[in-house]
């Protein structure tokens, strides 16, 4: 039985459905917990312990993830390894390291709120890149929902009391590099017939090596280098926890894909965003600046409404049913 939830009196089909429902619930819970925890832990490392060695942190995450994925394939048969050609692995790895590193730079130099809300601009950025590079276009409703996202991101950005020019530049680079990485990752995955876990296992070792080279180049010399950084026991615990969260984010995501509907997956994603923002406001925000906080929350709310509407419109289009804008506003 599953924690006493499966009763002998139930049929095998009922037992299986109950087991499946519990499994999906736990996967959703694990996905939310790991995604929120890694951001909170990394921000604590950077802000409270001054562990600002982004490439070193990226290397730790990627190397541990690569080892765990290799062991999962070799020892447990979780998936069948399949690799991209070397040149393609390198190209995607460079984009991936850029995405991960600049997202961590953004987290270091910005508030958790701005870091998280700027990530919402990734989808509009993907569509802009596809439009200018490949001429792909989207319909008016999709453009309207994404305009709402960008409006909310803009509102949250200009009202962020911790906003700096460097932080804004890093957030912009992080969004653009992440958008390009996701485009390349998706296209290469389809081109070479890999699923998401095979793609990650193929690229991650290359990403780990690249991030190690960058750490050696930029973080290993000088008085403020990682080699001269004094690490406390609490910091070691947080670094280990950060690596565990990095593994959990990947494995739980792979387990969740295909086990839930598109709507459930979106709801889980939105819940993560809300919890990350809430955690940022509770643990890292200056409560004396409450007026600015309210304006920032208003911007975040507008962006979240846009994201939810975008997901809803895309889902209803995929199943060829009328969305809420068509039902109540007559917008086809």
Brief summary:
With 332 residues, this protein is mainly alpha-helical. The chain is built from twelve helices and no strands.
| Helix content estimate | over 70%
- For the secondary structure, the number of strands is 0
What is the string of helix and strand elements? HHHHHHHHHHHH
Q: What general form does the structure show?
A: globular
Instruction: Determine the N-to-C terminus distance.
Output: 49 Å
Q: How can the largest sheet be summarized?
A: none
User: Number of DSSP helices?
Assistant: 12
CA gyration radius, whole angstroms: 21 Å
**What fraction of the residues are assigned to beta strands by DSSP?**
under 5%
The SS-based structural class is: mainly alpha
Average pLDDT number:
84
Describe this structure in words.
The protein is mainly alpha-helical and 332 residues long. 78% of the residues lie in helices and 0% in strands. Helix 3 (86-109) packs antiparallel against helix 7 (165-192) and helix 3 (86-109) packs across helix 8. Mean pLDDT is 84; it is low at 1-6.
